[in-house]
Amino acid sequence: MDSEEMLPQLSGIILEEQTGLTLADVCRACAVHAEYIIELVEEGVLVPVGREPVYWRFNGVHMRRANVAMRLQRDLGINLAGVALALQLLDEIEALRARNNALDSE
Question: Does residue 96 have a pLDDT over 90?
Fold first, then answer.
């Protein structure tokens, strides 16, 4: 038997920043109820395009943030306000690293 035949077949979708995911799409992809995503929006963790949940559109970055928020709550027991603060600090660290890397490459 060839070793390639034994490998499992994987499939996935690459989400770009411009992808317009609905609330239902994000809930399905993150395996959460709509109420959880709505709470993330109300706390400012996610900022979708659109005024009402039925018109909200999310992108891949939103989905990544929702997954990180879920892990912070599940693994560390952080409340939503703490999750918002942690994500803000992670964003700042990422920006500082990018800035530092840009300065190093000059």
Answer: yes
CATH level 3 topology of 18-104: Multidrug-efflux Transporter Regulator; Chain: A; Domain 2 (1.10.1660)
Q: Which long-range contacts (CB under 8 A, 24 or more apart) does 16-22 make?
A: 16/59, 16/60, 17/59, 17/60, 17/61, 18/59, 19/59, 19/60, 20/49, 20/57, 20/58, 20/59, 21/57, 21/58, 21/59, 21/60, 21/62, 21/63, 22/56, 22/57, 22/58
Kindly list the distances between the CA atom of residue 33 and the CA atoms of 30, 43, 79, 86, 101, in Å, as whole numbers in the listed order: 9, 16, 17, 22, 39
Amino acid at residue number 5: E
Residue range 26-55, pLDDT digits in tens: 999 889 999 999 999 999 999 999 999 999
Q: What is the sign of the dihedral through the CA atoms of 96, 99, 100 and 101?
A: positive
